[in-house]
């Protein structure tokens, strides 16, 4: 089957990760180990999933890489920025996600991944104290410095293409401001005027990436690319953008379990979610302004799946609460509890309890791989702007809220969107309905 108008995945792909902490180093170590044949990339849809193409007698199930040309794991080169200067080996050891025996075989490669100085503003993450930081007087200087980093990395590592993915901490909540976030010209003026209230450092990374011809993926709930000015920039540069926030533990459960309640036509009285987490992400989220950013992204999931306006008898006025508690002894081993109060026939109450003892970075790492490879694919296929088909991997999927569009949060609908986009890029019919 001919791949329609899609550039081949030839040459090296540079994946530049913002943040060199637990998630980033688990991702990089896993890829390096997998290409040595020392581990398996379990949890990665691009490496494992098989998708149906064709119908009837023509029907067959093919791995994603046989439908569309994906970058090979052997062609990936890693770069990173971080406020702490430790190389990827030191950082992986410090994170204590992976055992030493699973890091040491690629120690030399990890030691060569030394973080560039981060574009950082302590007001956006008060709990971080690193000094590996760019000396930029203004937000515009940040943009220029980051653009230079991307250009140098691409040249020094002989990369054909670059993808930039955010795996750094959650910034404080930045409400969307029509004065500087709605039009690209206003955003640029705000950056040049060093408007630190409305321009987060992450916006400088996104602007730099898109301007340098690199897709940008927002893996935290930050406002960053979820503004019309950035959509305009992505259209102008013909680059894909995706976000927000990797869908790893509790929200994955929620986006998969809420449809069970909905399709069974059961009622919901309340859904209480709480987490304990002890890694750097938990530390940053212990700051109320940073938690607010996360809370907004976590709360949006349920309300677009179980809608009062569609089923007032079942979903009128249910109570939805989300909590994250910083608890150092757990480190990266996050625990999520969900208490779900439902009601059934004649209004009789019932309860569901879900206790997910997960490993945050182990669940996130394959998402970084899939999002990077699929964003690179989208760019080669000439797709740009918001990549809605990547919602499957994200907690709070981007959508055009200025036009009243609603995000698709139902996991099964998201999966259909993903499969259809892959079919389409592979030259097959996008033949599944999103019901």
Describe the model:
Helix 1 crosses helix 15 (360-380) and helix 6 packs across helix 9 (201-211). This protein has a 7-stranded parallel beta sheet, sandwiched between helices. The protein has a 4-stranded mixed beta sheet with strand order 10-9-11-12. Strands 2-3 form a two-stranded antiparallel sheet. The radius of gyration is 21 Å and the shape is globular. The model has no long low-confidence stretch (mean pLDDT 95). Helix content is 37%, strand content 18%. The chain has 16 helices and 13 strands.
Name a few traits of the molecule.
435 residues; alpha/beta; seven-stranded parallel β-sheet; four-stranded mixed β-sheet; 37% helix; 18% strand
Which class best fits the helix and strand makeup?
Answer: alpha/beta
Radius of gyration, whole Å: 21 Å
* Terminal residue distance: 28 Å
Number of strands: 13
Strand order of the largest sheet: 5-4-1-6-7-8-13
Which stretches are low in confidence, meaning pLDDT under 50 for 5 or more residues running? none
In helices, the fraction of residues equals 25-40%
Count of alpha/pi helices: 16
Order of helices and strands: EHHEEHEHHEHEHHHEHEHEHHHEEEHEH
Mean pLDDT: 95
The gross shape turns out to be globular
Biggest sheet features: 7 strands, parallel
Task: Provide the β-strand percentage band.
Answer: 15-25%
């Amino acid at each position: 089957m001919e791949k329609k108008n899609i550039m081949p995945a030839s040459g090296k792909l540079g994946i530049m990760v913002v943040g060199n902490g637990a998630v980033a180093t688990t991702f990089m170590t896993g890829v390096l180990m997998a290409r040595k044949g020392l581990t398996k990339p379990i949890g990665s849809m691009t490496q494992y999933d098989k998708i149906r193409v064709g119908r009837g007698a023509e029907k067959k199930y093919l791995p994603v890489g046989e439908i569309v040309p994906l970058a090979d794991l052997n062609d990936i080169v890693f770069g990173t920025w971080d406020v702490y200067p430790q190389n990827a080996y030191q950082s992986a050891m410090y994170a204590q996600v992976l055992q030493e025996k699973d890091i040491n075989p690629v120690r030399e490669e990890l030691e060569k991944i030394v973080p560039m100085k981060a574009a950082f503003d302590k007001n956006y993450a008060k709990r971080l104290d690193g000094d590996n930081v760019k000396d930029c007087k203004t937000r515009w200087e940040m943009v220029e410095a980051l653009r230079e980093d991307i250009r140098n990395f691409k040249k020094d590592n002989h990369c054909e293409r670059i993808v930039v993915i955010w795996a750094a901490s959650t910034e404080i909540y930045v409400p969307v401001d029509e004065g500087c976030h709605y039009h690209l010209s206003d955003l640029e003026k705000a950056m040049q005027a060093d408007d630190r209230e409305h321009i987060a450092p992450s916006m400088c990374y996104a602007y730099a990436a898109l301007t340098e011809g690199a897709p940008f993926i927002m893996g935290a709930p930050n406002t960053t690319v979820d503004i019309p000015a950035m959509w305009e920039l992505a259209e102008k540069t013909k680059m894909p953008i995706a976000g927000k926030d990797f869908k790893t533990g509790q929200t994955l459960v929620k986006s998969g379990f809420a449809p069970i309640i909905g399709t069974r036509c059961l009622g919901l009285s309340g859904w209480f979610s709480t987490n304990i987490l002890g890694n750097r992400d938990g530390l940053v989220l212990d700051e109320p302004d940073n938690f607010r950013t996360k809370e907004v992204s976590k709360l949006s999931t349920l309300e677009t799946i179980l809608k009062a306006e569609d089923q007032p008898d079942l979903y009128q006025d249910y109570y939805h609460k989300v909590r994250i508690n910083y608890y150092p002894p757990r480190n990266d081993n996050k625990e999520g509890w969900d208490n779900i109060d439902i009601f059934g026939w004649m209004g009789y109450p019932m309860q569901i309890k879900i206790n997910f003892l997960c490993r945050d970075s182990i669940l996130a790492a394959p998402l970084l791989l899939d999002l990077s490879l699929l964003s690179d694919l989208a760019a080669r296929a000439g797709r740009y702007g918001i990549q809605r088909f990547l919602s499957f991997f994200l907690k709070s999927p981007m959508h055009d809220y200025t036009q009243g569009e609603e995000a698709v949060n139902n996991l099964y609908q998201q999966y259909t969107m993903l499969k259809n986009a892959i079919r389409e890029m592979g030259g097959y019919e996008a033949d599944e309905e999103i019901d």
